[in-house]
Design a protein that fits this description.
Structural class: alpha+beta
CATH topology: Thiol Ester Dehydrase, Chain A
Helix content: 10-25%
Shape: globular
Strand order of the largest sheet: 1-2-4-5-6-3
Distance between the termini: 46 Å
Number of strands: 8
Length: 170
C-alpha cells in the first residue's frame, strides 16, 4: 500500500503521543508502515482484571489503536480516523509480560477503512501466543479545531449540546 502522506510516520507518532490513555497504560508505538501498525504494552499490576492478567479493556484498546493508526498511515496530510465499529474475540487469557497488537488495513477506502488486529501475549522468553483478534471499521475524519486547556495543556473539547462539562480535579 502506498501512503498519501510522505510524512505519515511523524503524523502517526504525534497523534499516538497525544493520547493520554495510551500513556496511562504505558503503551508504546513500536512501528508504523503504510497500512500497518504495531503497539506494545508491558504488564503491570495497574492493568489487571480480578485474576491478575491483562484486562480485556487494555487488549481491546491496543487492538483498536493498532487498527486506527494503520488506517491513518494511508490518509492524506492532516487526515485523522475515528473508530466506527469493531468486534474483538478473545482466544486465550491475557497472561504474559507484554501484550503486542499488530494492526493492518484489509481494505482502504476514501471514507471507511476495514482493518484487523491480532493481539499476542509475549512471555519472558520472548515467545508470542495469539490471545485476541479484532475486525474494525475506521472512518476518515477531518481534524477538529480544539484549543488547549491552559491549566493542563490538553485539548479542550466542548461539551455536546444538552450536556455539561464536569470540571477536572485541581
Amino acid at each position: 500500500m502506498t501512503p498519501a502522506d510522505p510524512a505519515f510516520r511523524d503524523r502517526v507518532a504525534t497523534a499516538f503521543a497525544a493520547q493520554g490513555f495510551a500513556r496511562t497504560l504505558g503503551a508504546r508505538l513500536v512501528s508504523v508502515e503504510p497500512g500497518r501498525c504495531e503497539i506494545d504494552c508491558m504488564f503491570h499490576d495497574g492493568l489487571t482484571q480480578h485474576h491478575g492478567m491483562f484486562h480485556a479493556g487494555v487488549l481491546t484498546t491496543l487492538a483498536d489503536n493498532a487498527c486506527g493508526f494503520a488506517a491513518m498511515s494511508l490518509l492524506p496530510p492532516g487526515g485523522e480516523v475515528l473508530s466506527v465499529e469493531f468486534k474483538i474475540s478473545f482466544l486465550r487469557p491475557g497472561a504474559g509480560v507484554a501484550a503486542v497488537a499488530r494492526g493492518e488495513v484489509l481494505k482502504p477506502g476514501r471514507t471507511l477503512t476495514t482493518c484487523r488486529a491480532d493481539v499476542h501475549m509475549r512471555d519472558a522468553s520472548g515467545r508470542e501466543t495469539l490471545a485476541a483478534t479484532m475486525l474494525a471499521t475506521m472512518m476518515a475524519a477531518a481534524p477538529e479545531a480544539r484549543g488547549a486547556n491552559p491549566a493542563t495543556g490538553a485539548r479542550d473539547i466542548p461539551a455536546a449540546p444538552g450536556t455539561r462539562r464536569i470540571a477536572a480535579p485541581p
